[in-house]
Design a protein that fits this description.
Blueprint: H1 5-12, H2 30-49, H3 56-81, H4 89-105, H5 110-134, H6 139-158, H7 170-177, E1 180-181, E2 184-185, H8 186-204, H9 206-216, H10 218-223, H11 228-254, H12 265-275, H13 287-306, H14 314-339, H15 341-344
Antiparallel strand pairs: 1-2
Helix pairs in contact: 2-13, 3-8, 3-11, 3-12, 3-13, 4-5, 4-6, 4-11, 5-6, 5-11, 7-11, 8-9, 12-13, 12-14, 13-14
C-alpha cells in the first residue's frame, strides 16, 4: 500500500469538485454559479416588485433571519457532503436554547449557560452518530427518531412554556445579542466567520479531502485507511454543536427560549443544501453553495411577506423549492450519465 493514502484514494474516488477543480478549487463550479444567478434573479424581482425590498431595515432583516438557519445549514451541509442526513437539528436548536435559558434564569451565569447549551447540542449529535454507526443504519433514520425524542425532552424540560424572565446580562443580551457593526449584528458576523472557516477546512485541509472522499466513495475511502465511521460520527456531532450554537445565540437575540422553536428548520436547511449543489448521495458540495441556497430561500420568504401572502405558505414554499432542487439535480445527473456512459458502469 502506498505511503500517501490521499494519492491512492484520489485514483479510486472521482474528484468531488468535478472539472472546475482543474481551473482552481476556489472557482465556482456550475452548481454554485447557477444558484448565484438564481439569487441575483430573485433579488432583482424583489427590487422591482416592492419599494420596501431595498431598504436597509429589510435587507438587514433578511440577513438576520438566515443567520440562525445558517449555523444549522453549515452542519447539515457538511454531514450531507459526507453522505449523512441530519434532520434532528431543529429539535437540538430548541433544546440547547431552553437549557441555556434555564441556566441563565437560575443564576448560573453566561459562561455556564453558553457551555451548557453547546454541550447539550454536542451530546445530541454524538448520540445520533454513535447510534447510526453501532446499529449500522442511515443517519436519516436515526435522526428522524431523535427529532421527536429531543423535541419531547425540550417540552418536558421547559414545562411546555417559553422560558422568560431572563436576568440582567448586558454584555450577553445587549452587547452580543443586539449589538453589531455597520448594521450587521455580532451574531451574523460570528456566523460568517464560522462559514468561512468551514469552507476553508472543506477545500484546503486533509480533513476536508477525507470528508469529500468518504461521501464520494466510502468503500474506497475505507480501503485506504480512512476511518469512515469516525468521520461520520464527528460530522453529526459537529452538526449538533452548530445547531446548539444557533440556539444559544437565539436566546441572546430574543431574550427568551421556546420549546417549539426551530420546528421545520430541518426542511429549510436541507433545501438550502440541495439547492446549493450538495448531492444527496454525498461527495460533492460546498459551504458557499449552501449559503447561496439559503439566501434564495430567505429572499423568497421575505417576498412572501412583502407581497402580502399568508405566512402559512412559508414552509410550503421551502418544500416546493426543495422538490424543484431535487428534480433539477436528478435531471442533471441523468444528463451527465447519458454524456458519460462509462461512468455509469
Amino acid at each position: 500500500m502506498t505511503d500517501n493514502p490521499e494519492a491512492t484514494v484520489s485514483s479510486a474516488v472521482p474528484d468531488p469538485a468535478g472539472p472546475a477543480s482543474e481551473r482552481g478549487r476556489w472557482r465556482f463550479a456550475f452548481d454554485e454559479l447557477g444558484i448565484l444567478v438564481a439569487a441575483v434573479i430573485f433579488f432583482a424581482i424583489g427590487s422591482l416588485s416592492s419599494p420596501y425590498f431595498l431598504t436597509l431595515d429589510n435587507l438587514t432583516g433578511i440577513l438576520q433571519s438566515i443567520t440562525f438557519l445558517g449555523f444549522l445549514s453549515i452542519g447539515v451541509g457538511l454531514a450531507l457532503i459526507a453522505g449523512e442526513i441530519d434532520i434532528s437539528v431543529g429539535s437540538i436548536y430548541a433544546l440547547a436554547a431552553v437549557v441555556a435559558a434555564l441556566l441563565l434564569k437560575n443564576g448560573y451565569g453566561v459562561p455556564v449557560a453558553f457551555a451548557g447549551g453547546l454541550g447539550v447540542g454536542l451530546a445530541c449529535g454524538l448520540v445520533n452518530g454513535i447510534v447510526a454507526q453501532v446499529i449500522n443504519v442511515s443517519a436519516v433514520v436515526v435522526t428522524l427518531a431523535t427529532l421527536g425524542v429531543y423535541r419531547a425532552i425540550t417540552l418536558v424540560t421547559a414545562g411546555g412554556s417559553p422560558i422568560t424572565g431572563m436576568p440582567e446580562a448586558p454584555l450577553f443580551f445587549d452587547g452580543f445579542g443586539q449589538g453589531g457593526i455597520a448594521g450587521i449584528s455580532y451574531i451574523t458576523i460570528l456566523f460568517l466567520v464560522v462559514a468561512i472557516c468551514a469552507e476553508i477546512v472543506l477545500r484546503k485541509t486533509a480533513f476536508g479531502f477525507r470528508l469529500l472522499a468518504v461521501g464520494s466513495n466510502p468503500v474506497a475511502a475505507r480501503l485506504v485507511g480512512f476511518r469512515v465511521e469516525r468521520m461520520r460520527i464527528a460530522l453529526l456531532a459537529l452538526s449538533g454543536l452548530l445547531a446548539a450554537l444557533s440556539g444559544v445565540c437565539s436566546v441572546a437575540y430574543l431574550h427568551t427560549a421556546g420549546p417549539t422553536a426551530g420546528a421545520g428548520y430541518e426542511l429549510t436547511v436541507l433545501a438550502a443544501a440541495i439547492i446549493g449543489g450538495v448531492q444527496l448521495s454525498g461527495g460533492r458540495g460546498s459551504i458557499i453553495g449552501v449559503l447561496l441556497g439559503l439566501c434564495v430561500i430567505g429572499i423568497i420568504q421575505n417576498l412572501i411577506v412583502l407581497w402580502g401572502i399568508s405566512p402559512n405558505w412559508t414552509q410550503g414554499v421551502s418544500g416546493i423549492v426543495l422538490i424543484a432542487a431535487v428534480t433539477v439535480t436528478w435531471l442533471t445527473r441523468r444528463d451527465q450519465g447519458k454524456a458519460n456512459p462509462i461512468a455509469r458502469g
